[in-house]
Design brief:
It is a single chain. The protein contains 4 helices and 9 strands; from the N terminus they run E-H-H-E-E-E-E-H-E-E-E-E-H. The chain is α+β, with helices and mostly antiparallel strands. Helix 1 packs antiparallel against helix 2. The protein is elongated, with a radius of gyration of 18 Å.
């Protein structure tokens, strides 16, 4: 039986700068009657709609899933965590949204703004975007 999370947050990509171009591209494709073009636009829109970042805090660690890229949760056990802190990041901090890699960090985000940074022993730091980083950090602090 799966343990009930103490904290759970699901985020989607809300930016209109992604949806507006898709709509603007689809109008001429539909007018021209391109079935292949319409299917491509629908596939891209479906992919963006299906993207979600799910963060859970359970008694044994922090769980992150960036669907549909991750088929299951990635577990960050508490015993491997050195420090957790609130962080702010912008568009240029990690180069965009999604799963972003830098030499020292892996970042999961659906928008820029706030989140938490997890420093781990002998591993890359993890940044997780959050709509409510204070509650996420408080829940982790209670368990860690």
């Amino acid at each position: 039986m799966t343990e009930e999370p103490l904290f759970r947050e699901t985020q989607r990509i809300p930016q209109p700068w992604i949806w507006v171009p898709l709509v603007l591209v689809s109008v001429p494709i539909l007018v021209l009657g391109s079935v292949v073009g319409a299917l491509v636009v629908l596939a891209v829109a479906g992919l963006f709609y299906s993207i979600q970042l799910v963060t859970e805090v359970r008694s044994d660690g922090i769980y992150v899933r960036f669907a549909p890229v991750h088929r299951s949760f990635r577990r960050l056990p508490f015993d491997g965590i050195e420090r957790v802190e609130r962080t702010e990041f912008g568009l240029l901090t990690y180069g965009g949204i999604g799963i972003r890699w830098t030499p020292n960090t892996v970042a999961y985000m659906t928008t820029w703004g706030s989140g938490i940074k997890i420093d781990r022993e002998n591993a890359k730091s993890i940044v997780i975007g959050s709509q409510d980083p204070s509650v996420l950090l408080e829940t982790i602090d209670e368990l860690h």
